[in-house]
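Lecture 7 notes: from sequence to structure.
We start with the chain below.
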Amino acid sequence: MKVRRERPSQRLHHRVTAPLKVDLPEGRFMTADWSLSGLKIADYKGSAEQGEILDLTLHVPFQGFDISFSATAKVVRNNQEDHFLAVMFEEIGERETEIMSHFVEEIIRGSITTVDDTLLRIDTPVTPVSTKPDPNPTSDVPVQRWPMKTIFFTTFYALAGLGVLAYVGLLAYSNFARLEVETAVVSAPLQPLIATSNGRIRKVHVSEKTSVSFAAPLITVEDPELERAIDFAQLRIDRATVALLSHQKELAAEKARLNDYQAIAQDELVRIESEIKTLQTQANIVGTQLGRFTGLLKKGWTTESKVDEIRQVYQDISGALTQARLKHAERSANLERASEGRFFNGMRLEGRMTELEAEIDRAWHEITSTTQEHNALLRQRDRLMLAAPSNGRVVTLTKPAGSTIKRGEEIGLFERDEARLIHAYLNQDEILEVGLGDEAQLYFPSLDEKIPARVKAVDRTEGYIDEMSDRYTWRGQKDRSARVTLAFEGLKIEDIRRRFDPGLPVIVLFERRNRNDIHHDIRHIVDPSEDAGENL
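Predicted structure tokens for the same chain:
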């Protein structure tokens, strides 16, 4: 026998000729055939070019109604001689693809057929059942002819019914006796790390998830304006220091000059004093001689011209003595003024010691004040460093080293070494069925683990706070604007931190509380101790 092998089909989907209408810019057309990957139009006379992307609207006529949806297709072929257009779907929705796939499968199976350009479902015929009774009594029927199929299906449906009833009971218990909340998450006591000024992150001292102690350095921030001010302050200190050294050298030179002047003035005073003594001796001698010659003149033993000559000499010596004494007094006064930093050089008053000492004092004051300003700026730079607010760890850093930051920008999250909690978000109806101290069950889907918990806080207004206007704003009843805080039961803080990371999704199962006041009164009448226990 000769075996004929067909070439494998390259098509990915079945192509059907069932009616399908397509809306194009040129109008509405009926397809010649179509599949899940594209379609073909036989009477197309438009100008679409190959590779062009078209927006289509597809209409599937079914049971007298059109099922319409949109799609995007790419022109594969436009044969203008035969007037047919072939396109390939580029973008089509998942639900639309399922609808088209359903129709293709039903058409191939024969469950749906085409009648007058409309898809219709074919009903399956039912075999009629005889209404005549069985002539044989049931007791006479042999075991081989027992209705085993009926017994099997009866048992099966009975067990299935019991399973359904049990499932319905479980659903009723879950929906009426228990409250299941899926909007819960593990929450850690996080604190944002906020930039205190504009600048740049100079250094990150710790890595993420690394434990640090209180006040440990985390991030060093560099403020360009502050760094510029620190540099300017240091420059002012340097300039004042240079000016101080210059004035000190000038003062030293001025002191040396003054010392030289004092030495010279002292020598001159000694010389003047010696001159005065000499002139005084000469004046005494000439005065004695003048007296003697005056006596001789009275007796006539000498001439008057000789007496006048001696008198002239005496007057010259007395004048010179007077000038020497005045010069001595002047030099003594200058020497005394020299101790104050000034002296007279014979033409003008010299000496800048007072001015230089004032300049030195001003330079010292400039250095002191600028140094204080520089230290204050350094302390301000130290305050820019973000330190650990408590024992804990950096959870995440949104900015790496070298990044620019703005004042008030959040650059990381810090987790405190405190117990982690569960935050469950409920709507305004559900929050009325949860009470403080209630026990609950925590189910972690990602860990497939159940942990007991207890309600620690109930806050109905968590979602009402408007941070912009700093007031409460009411929200809808179905909004999950209330928050219930739960604590782990029976676990240590170290185990909780190690096993349950922040952000882990949790499903919380609460025991519903009855919020009907009448039911509460009835329960109080039936069991007063229960109400007393609740009050405790």
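Points to note: Residues 224-299 form the longest helix (76 residues). The helical segments are 94-109, 148-177, 224-299, 304-338, 353-383, 493-499, 517-526, 528-535.
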